[in-house]
């Protein structure tokens, strides 16, 4: 049994690809490749017509001619040593890059120090000019938003005064598409919903203003309280009025006037 195991093991070793030594008896693949490349390079060259013979192909020495079991050499090594060499090269490269970056930073710093007073003043003016341009662009975009808001606000108010509440809601909603953070548009739309007796939608707009845009917006508290009152929800009505008084303690007279008008309406 031991002999059969040994024989099977030796047969496996002989059939292993690394044990195949046919290349020692066959022509060199490297030599064939070199000759093939030489033929490709000289394919378009004209033949020597004077002698009536083509140019003789270049002869390449066979590097495997004298290779035997005992006469050979290894040109490169693999394994962990090669990996360590690559890691050393990479660390050297990163160190050289960091040195270059530090050198460039030092260079720019020294160049700033070596500037004259007039040069520093010129650089300061240029930076100030760029900053002012940025401020103007930001201010112009803000002014554009205000113009858009005022257009839809006025058109919606005109429609509201004509009792065109659905059209006013449409105009206020279009304004929100351009300026989604305007509490005035939401509150005016809530007022239109109240006129149409759509109290739930009015409460939703008021809650959006108080929870997202402005937690102290007085008209949102009052319109929400009015909607709860018309729905018969006394508990939420009282809670909205109490929150309005607590958050806007300086506007108690206005709140009382609003409640008085609501009772007489």
From TrEMBL:
InterPro entries: TPR-like_helical_dom_sf (IPR011990), TPR_rpt (IPR019734), TTC12 (IPR043195). One of its GO terms (cellular component) is cytoplasm. TPR repeats lie at residues 149-182. Residues 1-23, 48-101 are annotated as: Disordered. SMART domains: TPR. The keyword Cytoplasm does not apply. One of its GO terms (biological process) is axonemal dynein complex assembly. Residues 86-98 have a biased composition (Basic residues). The keyword Metal-binding does not apply. PANTHER family: TETRATRICOPEPTIDE REPEAT PROTEIN 12. Gene3D superfamilies: Tetratricopeptide repeat domain. Keywords: TPR repeat. This is Uncharacterized protein. Residues 75-85 have a biased composition (Low complexity). SUPFAM superfamilies: TPR-like. Residues 9-23 have a biased composition (Basic and acidic residues).
